Each structure stands twice: as structure tokens, then as C-alpha cells.
Amino acid sequence: QEFDFNKLVSDLVEDLQRTTQDHVLVASYAAPQFVVADDERIGQVITNLITNAIKYSPGSKRIEITTKASENEVELSVRDYGIGIAKADLNKVFEQFYRVTGAMQHTFSGLGLGHYISAEIIKRAGGRIWVESVEGEGSTFSFAIPLKKVKS
Ligand code: ATP
Ligand code: MG
To answer: Is 47:78 a contact under the CB 8 Å cutoff?
Structure first.
């Protein structure tokens, strides 16, 4: 079904901000863009990315959420200034049950499923998902999905 991508993001940001005390979600939105996809699933990905950003940045308040639109896709990026991810682990974080096992990471609990599920959902929507990160400085997780759903 068709939905307004920015509206979905801003509704979720509002909900998550209400239940988050320490972090400030700073969002900036592109012009309205309509996407044909499963809004519940895409919403699940957005929630995963933002809750991970909060979880892995206990010492810094700011989370930046940005939407962008191009001719044929919409993009969301979630930036945190938290613990970051070592280079060697970067391409593994989307694998099933993968959890980084550094000194910084072992105090956080989880199953290692969030990003795996996000990657599956984005793949099915015909999009891509990726991460840029510097250990000790923070991470930016992004995904892009086509404006018209690609049949797989
Ligand atoms: P789950 O989401 O299943 O509760 P999880 O958060 O450990 O558990 P994922 O969301 O799949 O699992 O993330 C995989 C791993 O990638 C995490 O264990 C963590 O080591 C690392 N990671 C994910 N997001 C971030 C982030 N924003 N900053 C730093 N490390 C991250
Ligand atoms: Mg997670």
C-alpha cells in the first residue's frame, strides 16, 4: 500500500521520543514522498535503527534522523555519537545472531537479530541498507527504498 514516508518516520520519531529520557532525537525531513511498500515492516526497520542508536550511545544525547529523496528512491539515515563499530565488524552486523564482542560492546544485551531482520525487510522492498562507523565516535545506519516497489 502507498504511504507518506516522511509521515511514517515523523510519527515513529515522536513515539520514540516520548519514551526516551536521555536522548534527543533531532530529525530533518525531505519533501513528502510516497512509497509503495509494507508500512508496518518499514516502520519496524526505522524503529530498529533508532532504538539501536539509543542503546549503543549511552554517553551522548544526540541522535540525528534524516530523510532524503531522489528521483527514484527515499533514504533514511540514523546517526549516533555512541560507541561505534570496529572496521572488522562492520560488514557482519547485518548477519543473523552477529554481535560485536569488544570491550565496549559486552555490557549491552541482545540477540543480534535486529539488523538481520531489518536487512531482510529492506531487501524484500527492493532496497539496500548500509552502515558507516568509526569506533569510539559513532555510527550512521542508512537504508534506501525505491519509490515504486520492485517485484522480487
Ligand atoms: P537485538 O536487536 O536482537 O535485540 P542487538 O542489538 O545486539 O540485539 P542488532 O541490532 O542486530 O543486535 O545489532 C548487531 C550488533 O551490531 C550489536 O550487537 C552491536 O554489537 C552492533 N551495533 C548495532 N547497532 C549499533 C550502533 N548503533 N552502534 C554500535 N554498535 C551497534
Ligand atoms: Mg538491536
So the answer is: no
90-125 confidence digits (pLDDT tens)? 989 999 988 887 766 667 888 889 999 999 999 999
Question: Is residue 143 predicted with pLDDT exceeding 80?
Answer: yes
51 CA to centre of ligand 1 in angstroms: 10
Choice from 94, 109, 115, 143 to test ligand 1 binding pocket (greatest atom count within 8 A of CB): 115
- To which residue does cell 519514551 refer? 19
CA distances to 8, 71, 134 from 34, rounded to whole Å, are: 10, 12, 33
Query: How far apart (Å, rounded) are the C-alpha atoms in residues 89 and 73?
Result: 28
Q: What is the ipTM of this complex?
A: 0.97
